[in-house]
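Dear H.,

Thanks for agreeing to be a second pair of eyes. The structure we're designing against is below in token form, covering all 461 positions.
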């Protein structure tokens, strides 16, 4: 039994995912996630947040994916382990109490069930069924010493070892919970350092205020990178912490259910004997239970001391890194503040100088414009005066022209009247002459007719 206990718990705990398969699967899942992100969501805020903020978001997502793969693996294994609580592992042909006559049959049956469980492991990652191994340990303890103290002690030792194994399986998760925020702080320091460095190099060679403005935009983008990495790391670490706490409670509940199952369904079926009967009827194999207890306690102490050392080391490492980051942050902020103040003073003086130059130039332009306006005003006044004089002369000329026009109209009217009188008189004279001509013509016609008549008369005679 001593060899069985030590060999059984030297294996990896069933809910613990190996480092090598975890690393490979997490790398592939992270690669697929980033391919999807770059292909479909690159221009969104989340895409820029996870892909355009330096190298730290990639590491944070990788550790977060690894953590959730561990959670998925643990959840699947816990469901697989929980199925064994629904089955009875004492065969029906063993009726009544379990004693020295049928314990060997029960042991063979349990060993067969263990072999079947080994063949039904999930992805060949799980090591063994916790319930079956617990029952197997109890049966082995009962075979070697069928008294209640030994069986209960074996149950307690196995339960403690399983609890320690469960706690140890979360050591990687604890490291990730500690490492993810540290990566965010590292990304913040890197982003601020890059922003201040770019601003310093730009301002040193700046000769124009536009260069300083562009440098300030570079500083703000660097600060965005810095604080975005902290945001991503804190959000991811919170998710990992909540999932880890919930899953650890499930695992502790499973171990408690296994203890209750063994007490209610196995230990109550055992037929215990007294110490005298144990001495008389025990197997010829002499087992040193004190040695087993001491070795088991030593293993428990080893597990506990190892976990304590890990907690102490992680706390010291985290404390040292936090102090270093705080000091570096404080020093960088002080240097950035002094450099920022110096650059602001230089920019202020340069800005003031440019403002003075622009003010003097503007004043000169204003004076020139004022002189031009005065000259134009004088010219306009002169033109207005000339225009007024021209208007007055024009009015006088119009009045003179009007009087002349009236005189001309009067003279023209008089002349027209005189012309009309002369025309009338002339017409009367011409009419009289025309009448005379007509009368003369009639006289001529009469004379012509009388002459022709006389000539005709003469010819006829």
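And this is the sequence the design step returned. I haven't edited it by hand at all.
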């Amino acid at each position: 039994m001593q060899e069985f206990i030590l060999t059984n718990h030297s294996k990896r705990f069933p809910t613990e995912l190996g480092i090598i398969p975890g690393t490979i699967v997490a790398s592939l899942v992270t690669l697929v996630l980033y391919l999807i992100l770059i292909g479909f969501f690159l221009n969104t805020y989340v895409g820029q947040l996870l892909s355009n903020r330096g190298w730290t978001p990639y590491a944070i997502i990788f550790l977060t994916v690894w953590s959730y793969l561990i959670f998925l693996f643990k959840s699947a294994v816990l469901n697989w382990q929980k199925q064994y609580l629904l089955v009875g592992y004492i065969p029906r042909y063993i009726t009544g109490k379990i004693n020295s006559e049928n314990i060997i049959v029960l042991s063979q049956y349990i060993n067969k069930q263990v072999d079947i469980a080994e063949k039904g492991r999930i992805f060949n990652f799980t090591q063994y069924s916790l319930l079956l191994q617990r029952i197997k340990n109890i049966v082995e303890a009962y075979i070697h010493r069928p008294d209640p103290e030994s069986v209960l002690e074996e149950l307690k030792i196995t339960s403690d070892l399983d609890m320690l194994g469960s706690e140890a399986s979360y050591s990687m998760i604890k490291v990730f919970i500690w490492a993810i925020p540290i990566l965010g702080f590292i990304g913040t320091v890197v982003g601020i350092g890059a922003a201040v460095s770019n601003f310093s190099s730009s301002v040193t060679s700046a000769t124009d205020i536009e260069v300083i403005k562009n440098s300030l935009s570079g500083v703000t983008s660097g600060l965005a990178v810095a604080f975005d990495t902290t945001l991503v790391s804190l959000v991811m670490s919170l998710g990992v912490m909540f999932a880890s706490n919930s899953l650890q409670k499930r695992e502790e509940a499973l171990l408690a259910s296994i203890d209750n199952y063994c007490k209610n369904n196995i230990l109550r079926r055992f037929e215990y004997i007294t110490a005298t009967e144990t001495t008389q009827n025990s197997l010829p194999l002499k087992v040193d239970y004190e040695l087993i207890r001491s070795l088991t306690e030593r293993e428990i102490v080893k597990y506990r001391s190892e976990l304590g050392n890990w907690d102490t080391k992680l706390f010291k490492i985290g404390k040292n890194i936090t102090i270093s980051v705080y000091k570096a942050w404080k020093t960088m902020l002080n240097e950035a503040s002094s450099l920022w103040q110096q650059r602001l003073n230089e920019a202020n003086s340069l800005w003031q100088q440019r403002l003075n130059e622009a003010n003097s130039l503007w004043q000169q332009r204003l004076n020139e414009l004022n002189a031009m306006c005065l000259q134009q005003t004088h010219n306009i006044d002169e033109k207005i005066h000339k225009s007024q004089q021209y208007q007055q002369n024009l009015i006088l000329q119009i009045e003179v022209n009007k009087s002349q026009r009236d005189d001309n109209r009067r003279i023209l009217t008089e002349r027209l009247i005189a012309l009309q009188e002369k025309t009338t008189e002339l017409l009367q004279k011409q009419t009289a002459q025309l009448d005379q001509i007509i009368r003369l013509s009639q006289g001529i016609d009469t004379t012509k007719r009388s002459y022709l008549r006389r000539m005709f008369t003469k010819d006829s005679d």
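Two observations from my side: Confidence is low (pLDDT under 50) at residues 1-10, 122-126, 275-287. The CA atoms of residues 17 and 70 lie 6 Å apart.

Warmly,
E.
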